[in-house]
Recover the amino acids of this structure.
């Protein structure tokens, strides 16, 4: 009679038979794959963070400009958005004079602390946004915005924001009607956001 080969499970000691679970090798492979996936994800997230913060900063400036315009209409009073380049901050002020003095500061946003040092005033050397139309509106430097009680502005203006990755946004009020626009630097030219 032929000798049968013993079953592998039968050859194992009784304490290992029918025991559910994973082997140490299977666990090490799974943990290793998990570490590689997390490392790749974190690297990708960290490399995009300056651009994400720049986009958030542009949206916040836009929203604060819109808030100042609506506040001026609602309160029938002048509102201003005042940019402080030296302090890397801007403020929304209610009840101010036409020269943006006086009034009550409703909120101040510090770019350095709010966006973890990744965003600052400036256009990264890309030059001014030039809008076509009668007449073209070059915005070479930032300018404070004062909204009248009817929602119009005393002068056009806005601000450039840049980050450490050579990205740039412009948030501007190109006409006296007070409507704000966001533009993004696309590598060779400014484009509407």
């Amino acid at each position: 009679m032929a000798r049968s080969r013993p079953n592998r499970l039968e050859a194992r000691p009784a304490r290992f038979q029918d025991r559910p679970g994973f082997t140490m090798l299977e666990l090490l492979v799974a943990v290793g794959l998990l570490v590689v996936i997390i490392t790749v994800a974190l690297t990708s997230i960290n490399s995009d963070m300056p651009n994400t913060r720049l986009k958030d900063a542009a949206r916040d400036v836009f929203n604060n400009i819109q808030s100042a315009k609506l506040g001026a209409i609602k309160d029938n009073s002048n509102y201003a958005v005042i940019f402080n380049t030296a302090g890397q901050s801007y403020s929304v002020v209610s009840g101010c004079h036409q020269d943006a003095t006086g009034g009550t500061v409703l909120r101040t946003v510090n770019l350095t602390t709010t966006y973890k040092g990744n965003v600052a005033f400036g256009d990264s050397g890309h030059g001014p946004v030039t809008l076509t139309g009668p007449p073209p509106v070059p915005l070479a430097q930032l300018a404070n915005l004062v909204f009248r009680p009817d929602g119009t502005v005393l002068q056009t203006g806005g601000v450039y924001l840049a980050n450490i990755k050579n990205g740039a946004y412009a948030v501007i009020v190109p006409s006296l009607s007070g409507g704000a626009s966001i533009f993004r630097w696309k590598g060779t030219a400014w484009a509407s956001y």
Remarks:
- The chain has a mean pLDDT of 82.
- The domain at 49-192 is CATH 3.55.40.10 (minor pseudopilin epsh fold).
- Helices lie at 8-11, 24-75, 111-114.
